[in-house]
Amino acid sequence: MLSVPRSRLAWMAMILLLGLSLAACSGTSRGATPEALGIVVNDGLGRELTLAAPARRIVSLAPSNTEILFSIGAGGQVVGRDELSDYPAEAFNVTSVGSVYGTINLEAIVALDPDLVLLSELNPAEQIAALENAGLTTYLVPNPLDFEDLYANLSTIGQLAGHKEEATALTAALRQRVASIEAQVVGTSPVRVYYEVDGSNPLAPWTTGRGTFQDYLVARSGGVNVVSELDGWAQISLEKLIELDPQVIVFGAGPYVPTTVESLASRDGWQDITALAKGAIYAIDTNWIDRPGPRLVDAYEAMARAIHPEAFE
């Protein structure tokens, strides 16, 4: 019988144990699913969030987040919402926990026992800190600057809520709509456009410059934003607007906006602007264009039709 030295037996045993250990680790890695490994994502503040499993009790503190959750079939998981989350109609059946523009009821949120609180860039730092200090898990959804950012938000929220397939299907449908709208305006001549956010003070209305989704929509619709030299949201003087002389004026319309097509057309000093002379004044639902949810595609179509109506005849 072959004799093996004890030192060699020990060495062989070590190799065998190491091999078994590596095989076990390799097998776990190959067989594990993303769900088994947990969900790891970075939010709009650059913070890493890890969930062991998709969230089942979600508080949404932004209308856009609420809309996204319902649009991907996760509405039944929303146990709390901010006061302004009014779409879809089913959202009204969810408990309101206050307004991000006023105060949120932290005690009510804690009592709802959420495993995830979805935030947006509307939420001030002190609100976020209070939620974190209460031991709640939060994720801030960043504002999209283009459609790819929107699709990324849909994908992430779908992952966090356990509705990845529905989010993927919705994204595909939105991509198809965007492509169809884009095909209508491709090759059209550029048109000078002024978009008004808030005209409460007609002598110094609020508009939107570069680095905003509204600026992106104007450009994608075949327009040239006349205030694109501005950064973000800013006020503009009547004199400057007359100098820029937009050919089309678009404004966000809604229950909190005093502007109408008629009131804008009758503003003192605006009659020399080309858009007014042409009657090219259009309203877009502020809930479409100012909420970074799926209805941004509705805003895109409305913007494209306002800037190039001839392309849709």
Q: What report would you give on this structure?
A:
The chain has 313 residues and is α/β, with parallel strands linked by helices. It contains 13 helices and 12 strands. The strands form 3 sheets. Strands 7, 8, 9, 10, 11 and 12 form a 6-stranded mixed sheet that branches. The longest helix has 26 residues, at 6-31.
Please identify the top-level CATH class of the largest domain.
Alpha Beta
Mean pLDDT: 88
**Tally of helical segments:** 13
CATH architecture of the largest domain: 3-Layer(aba) Sandwich
Helix and strand element order: HHEEEHEHEHEHHEEHEEHEHHEHH
| Spans where pLDDT lies below 50 across 5 or more residues | 1-36
Largest beta-sheet details = 6 strands, mixed
Task: Count the beta strands.
Answer: 12
**Whole-number total of structural domains:** 2
Please identify which CATH superfamily of the largest domain we are dealing with.
Nitrogenase molybdenum iron protein domain
Report, as a whole number of angstroms, the end-to-end distance.
Answer: 95 Å
**What is the helix fraction of residues, given as a range?**
40-55%
What general outline do the C-alpha atoms trace?
A: globular
CATH topology tier name of the largest domain: Rossmann fold
Strand content bin: 15-25%
- Radius of gyration, in Å, reads 26 Å
Which structural category do the helix and sheet elements fall into? Answer: alpha/beta
